[in-house]
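2024-03-11 09:14:02 INFO queue: dequeued item Galactokinase, len=387
2024-03-11 09:14:02 INFO validating residues
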Amino acid sequence: MTGAAAEAATVRREFARIHGRSPDGVWAAPGRVNLIGEHTDYNDGFALPMALPQTTVLAARRRADGLLRLHSAQGDGAITELTVADLVPGAVAGWARYPAGVVWALRDRGLPVGGADVHLDSTVPTGAGLSSSAALECAVAVAYDELYGLRLSRPELARVAQYAENAFAGVPCGVMDQMASVCCAEGAALHLDSRSLEVRQVPFDLTGHGLRLLVLDTGVAHDLADGAYAALRAGCERAAALLGLAALRDLAEAELPGALAELPDGLAPLVRHVVTENARVGRAVAALAAGEPEALGPLLTAGHASLRDDYRVSCPETDLAVAAAVAAGALGARMTGGGFGGSVIALVPAAAAGSVARAVTDAFAAAGFAAPAVLEALPSPGARRIG
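2024-03-11 09:14:37 INFO prediction written
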């Protein structure tokens, strides 16, 4: 039995034990790492994420009585029971607001969806900047799409999940996390245009080039609902307005020096990051298309410096992980995700993977930080039915 089939069988059995009947199906949606293109999506920019092997797996069965009954293997054992017709932003707390928000968002679009019994299990680390919330939202979205015969496109499902996180969960995120979770393909990174939602699958053959991509989870949990993320987005939108632009995506790298001279000191660094980060995405895509994935290394490290110095969303743990990884032989490293904690990715020669991981662990110990968790990222498939 394959890994996905075994997961599906386990979740199916748990669903039957908890809800007392068999599910209509089992779906999975992955977390993601973003190779490059951070804080660009809500500026209509570009990003290059890839899906992780770690997923949220969800078994569900349609109900006719309008009840949404949610159970999580990572929860306290209780079933959260909600009335679909009564769902409104602010009415649901904790992890349940993410699946409930998707159901609310579908109804808010006028789609004829009702209740369901749901059991979910997840291997996506929470608070690690790997989009555990997007994986949960997208698993619900693809399940409901099939349960209720909605036939939404993949970008439409991503927009529903993003709307749920923005309007129901209260996190003003862009669409990159959700697009990665539903649209990524095995063996590829996803070149995303956040304005048009056009995507391109860019082959990313780590193994064939003797490379590995390590994910170093610093253990510093981040919470994008705490206001800092919203303040950054508001700053970018204000800067675009002052420059007479629809979004910062419309500012070319060559125009950056003149634009920065027109902006208040507090906004200029945000603009510099977004514009140079969009340019780094273009260079990364060109490197992968040319079959030169090792050329990503310097782009990762430059992206981290920009996030640290201009956007100011790193922390001592992520900065240390990047510095230690590069000193130990990584081709490049950077924090991934919204920041304020979370994880670092490091592109390393396969032969150096163990020594790089040990070097980061030793550096954390010397600084008095808890040991980081180390995962390996492989370009994996997006959301799908698995059982």
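2024-03-11 09:14:37 INFO annotate: The chain has two domains: 3-202+381-385, 206-377.
2024-03-11 09:14:38 INFO item closed
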